[in-house]
Specification:
The protein is of the alpha/beta class and about 325 residues long. It is built from twelve helices and five strands. A five-stranded parallel sheet has the order 2-3-4-1-5, with helices on both faces. The chain is elongated, with a radius of gyration of 25 Å.
Length: about 325
C-alpha cells in the first residue's frame, strides 16, 4: 500500500509542475521501504518529455553530505543543458563571489577548495548566501528544463539540504516539484530539529503533508538515529575529503558529525588507513574558518612610536651614565 500511495503522490506533483506555484510536499510512512524499484521512478526516468527527473534515497547508515542531492543535480543539469563556463553561470545566478571558487572546484574535481578565510562574525551570513545560491541555481536551471526531485528518507538529510528545502518553500518556483519521503518512526538529527519543525509547520499550514498508512498515529513513537551506527567508507582519505567538502560548504554541524564518526571507527572498530594512499600533512583547515584578520597599524603611527621609544631610551642612557 505504501508503494501505491507514494507513487500517487509523485505522479500528482509531477503533473502539477509548471501549472501551480507550490509543488513541494512531504509523504510520511511508517514501514521503511526503498523507492529504487518503484515503477513510477523507472517510468519518469526513461521519459523523453521536457521534465528533468532526479531521485535520491538517503541511507540510515551513511552520512549525507552537504546540499545533497542538489549539488549533483546542478552540476549534471549544467553539463547537459547549458554547458560552457560554470563560473559564468554562477555569476548569472548572483552567486556570492567567495562561494564561486568552492563551487567551481567541486564542479571540476569533486574536491572543494577556498583561498579566503571565513570570518567568524560572517559565518551565518555566508551560510544564508550559500543556501540562496543553491536554490537560485536550481531555479535558473528549471527555466531551461522543469525539474522534478524525489528524496526518500529525507529526515536523514544534512542541515544544509533541509535549509535549502525551507528556502524553496518560502520562495516557491512553479517549475520545480519536490516530494520528500519520510519514515515517520525515525527522527531527524538533533542539529536539524529547529529548521525541520519550521518545514513541517509550513507544509501543514497548506495541507502539503500526506500520511500513508499508519504514519500519523506513530508520530510519537519515533526513534533517534545514533552517530555510532553511521557508516563511513574504509577509504579514510575519501571520508576525510568528504568531511572537508562539507566544511567548505559551511555545514559545520554535519562536518562535526563526520569527524566524530571517523574518530569512533578509528578508536573502537579496528579501522585502518592505507599508508600508501595517505597524504602527509593533510588536515581539515579549521583555522581558516575562525581566524579573524586584523589589519596592521599605519606605518606613520609605528614610526612615531619607534621615535618615542628612541627618545625615552636616550634619556634613560643619559641617566645611567650621568651624561
Amino acid at each position: 500500500m505504501i508503494e501505491k500511495y507514494y507513487s500517487g503522490v509523485i505522479e500528482q506533483i509531477y503533473n502539477r509542475i509548471g501549472k501551480e506555484t507550490r509543488n513541494i510536499v512531504m509523504a510520511n510512512y511508517s514501514n521503511d521501504f526503498s523507492i529504487e524499484n518503484l515503477e513510477v521512478i523507472r517510468r519518469y526516468q526513461s521519459n523523453e518529455d521536457n521534465v528533468f527527473f532526479a531521485y535520491s534515497e538517503f541511507s540510515y547508515n551513511t552520512l549525507v553530505v552537504a546540499y545533497e542531492p542538489f549539488l549533483d543535480i546542478i552540476c549534471n543539469m549544467h553539463r547537459r543543458f547549458i554547458g560552457g563556463s560554470f563560473d559564468d553561470f554562477q555569476k548569472e545566478c548572483g552567486v556570492y563571489y567567495l562561494h564561486r571558487q568552492v563551487l567551481n572546484s567541486y564542479y571540476e574535481t569533486g574536491e572543494c577548495f577556498r583561498e579566503e578565510t571565513v570570518l567568524l562574525n560572517e559565518v551565518a551570513y555566508e551560510q544564508r548566501r550559500m543556501t540562496m545560491a543553491i536554490a537560485d541555481m536550481l531555479k535558473r536551471l528549471s527555466e531551461v528544463r522543469p525539474l522534478m526531485i524525489v528524496i526518500n528518507r529525507f529526515q536523514m538529510a544534512s542541515k544544509s539540504s533541509i535549509e535549502t528545502i525551507k528556502y524553496l518553500i518560502d520562495n516557491p518556483c512553479a517549475n520545480i516539484g519536490i516530494v520528500l519521503g519520510v519514515n515517520a518512526i525515525v527522527k531527524c538529527a538533533d542539529s536539524t530539529v529547529e529548521v525541520w519543525d519550521r518545514i513541517v509547520e509550513s507544509l501543514e499550514d497548506r495541507s502539503a503533508i500526506y500520511y500513508i498508512g499508519s504514519a500519523e498515529p506513530l508520530k510519537n513513537n519515533i526513534k533517534t538515529t545514533n552517530d555510532d551506527e553511521l557508516y563511513i567508507t574504509m577509504n579514510f582519505e575519501q571520508s576525510i575529503q568528504e568531511a572537508s567538502n562539507i566544511m567548505e560548504f559551511l555545514d559545520f554541524e554535519q562536518a562535526r558529525r563526520g569527524c566524530r564518526i571517523i574518530e569512533h571507527k578509528l578508536k573502537f572498530e579496528d579501522a585502518w588507513i592505507d599508508e600508501k594512499k595517505s597524504k602527509v600533512g593533510y588536515e581539515i583547515p579549521f583555522t581558516r574558518y575562525f581566524y579573524k584578520y586584523e589589519a596592521p597599524r599605519p606605518s606613520a603611527e609605528i614610526m612615531a612610536e619607534i621615535m618615542d621609544l628612541e627618545t625615552e631610551l636616550s634619556g634613560s642612557l643619559e641617566e645611567v651614565f650621568d651624561l
